Amino acid sequence: MPALADALAAALAPDRVVAGEDVRRRHGTDESFHAPAAPDLVAYPLDVEECARLVRVCAERGAPIVPFGAGTSLEGHIAALRGGVSVDMSRMDRVLRLSIDDMDVTVQAGVTRRALDARLRPEGVFFSVDPGADATIGGMVATGASGTTTVRYGAMRENVISLLVVTADGSVIRTRSRARKSSAGYDLTRLFVGSEGTLGLVCEATLKIHPTPEAMAAAVCPFETLEGAVTCVLDVGRLGIPVARIELADAAQIEAINRHDEMDHEVAPTLFLEFHGSQTEVEAQAAEVQEVALEHGATRFAWATDEADRRKLWHARHRAYDAARATRPGSQGLTTDVCVPVSRLAECILETQADIDTLGLPAPIVGHVGDGNFHTAVLVDPNDPEEVARAEAFHARLVRRAIAMEGTCTGEHGIGYGKAAFLLEEHGAEAVAMMRAIKRALDPDDLFNPGKLADAAATAAS
Predict the structure, then answer these.
(1) I need a labelling partner for 327 at 20 to 30 A (CA). Which of 366, 368, 378, 381 fits?
(2) Other beta carbons less than 10 A from residue 2's beta carbon
């Protein structure tokens, strides 16, 4: 480690290569339920050239590289399972270029979602992907993030145009041009989106942006039953009503939000909705959804048209996990992340609710139900092995339920090493072998984030 630290200090600067225990521990710990693993060193590059030098130094010495954004991931992505260097991208935080004419923006990987929003908002545009946490763009690329607005605007895969990446030999590649479409070769951009730091070091991203809508309005809609709320979502989709957000929270989650954020929502299964467009379009969309909701047992349709009220509403929704954990102090949340075809959503959620009823542990449900994705946060005492075992067994049942319905074990959180076994169950040995072949072709010495994703799946199988 001293020789590696000296070489990195020469490639960057001595004060940007850190070996302190507290810093290393923080960089091996995300917000997940999974065991952390600290790196040997933490490095802070400032630009692409420094990233390339850093990668070459690590490659020459066989030191693993674990990219680090904001540490908000949920499947152990940043755990340095084999030590090595955590590459903290937080100081690469510049917006490099903004084109209103082309509706795109190029940023360094360490730019956070909120910082980008603050830069874009005065220009009358916005970046649509909103996972809730103030993640970095590089981290959102790595996990293929989505969130509350995916139902209208798409996830990261639909909103990343091009990437600048440092590969395992220290080369710098751009995955494609800024043109909005191209048939030139393999789609390298989407290969790296969702690769979880296992194929290269993402340094810059060119992203699609969207005009800020003329009008935006939000609504809160409680229902008599969970089934009524979910079937309302299906009918809204079938009617083609272009909602910008349609989020579900069950009664337990609503009660937690009320306590945590000092709100007074009716404690019932609830949809949070948002509408974008012209004033006329927003009013028409809301009226259509309200009519559908009332048919499915909605008890009211409360508006939040004021900007401050609308932001307060979504702030509370984004902090749902914190609110849930606060109902059981000292607990940790085992978060689930299944996604199913929307036609199977009601069936999957209702079977999951019945499972929760016999679990004996709190497990509120929230979800981006417009695209079939929902989460539970099973609140467990991490020091109670029996509770942990029950929670993990519930998680396995939920994942297998979703896979049986032609769904996925992870709609947006990724595999990391936490869901490794389920990657194999979902895709099969042949597809995972193909993923491993891609990994070996691009990173033959297993430099980038070893022990994750497809490699973790293979290890779990053995």
Answers:
(1) 368
(2) 7
Could you give the CA distance from residue 428 to residue 430 in angstroms, rounded to a whole number? 6
Q: How many helices and strands (H and E) does the chain possess?
A: 17, 18
| Residue 85 structure tokens | 């260097």
Answer yes or no: are the C-beta atoms of 87 and 38 closer than 8 Å.
no
Q: Quick one: CA dihedral 253, 335, 390, 325, positive or negative?
A: negative
Give tens-digit pLDDT for 413-451: 999 998 998 999 999 999 999 999 999 999 999 999 999
Cα–Cα distance for residue pair 332/33, rounded to 1 Å: 7
Q: Parallel, antiparallel, or unpaired: how do β-strands 41-43 and 85-88 relate?
A: parallel
Report H helices in 32-147: 48-61, 113-120, 137-143
Give the E-state strand segments of 369-446 in sequence order.
373-380
Check residue 381 and report its DSSP letter: -
Q: Which helix (H) or strand (E) holds 315?
A: helix 307-318
The residues pairing with 276 across neighbouring beta strands, listed in sequence order, are 216
Rounded to the nearest integer, the mean pLDDT of the chain is: 95
Tokens of 327: 């109902």
Sign of CA dihedral 182, 112, 29, 35: negative
Two tokens, residue 425: 């169950």
Q: Which residue has the tokens 């992907």?
A: 129
219 bridge partner residues: 273, 303
Q: Which two tokens stand for residue 274?
A: 């948002």
Q: Which helix (H) or strand (E) holds 107?
A: strand 104-108
**pLDDT range class, residue 311, cuts 50, 70, 90:** confident
> Do the bridges between strand 125-126 and strand 160-166 make them parallel or antiparallel, or are there none, so unpaired?
unpaired
Residue 45: how many CA atoms within 13 Å on its side-chain side?
28
In this prediction, residue 462 carries a pLDDT of: 65
Rounded CA separation 240/427 (Å):
31
pLDDT in tens, 24-41: 999 999 988 889 999 999
Amino acid, single-letter form, for residue 90: S
Question: How many CB atoms lie under 10 A from the CB of residue 33?
Answer: 21
**Phi-psi map region of 103: left, alpha, beta (phi>0 left; psi -120 to 50 alpha):** left
Portion of the chain with pLDDT greater than 70, in percent: 100
Give the DSSP per-residue string, 62-95: T--EEEESSS--SSSTT--TT--EEEE-TT---E
Radius of gyration of the chain (CA): 22
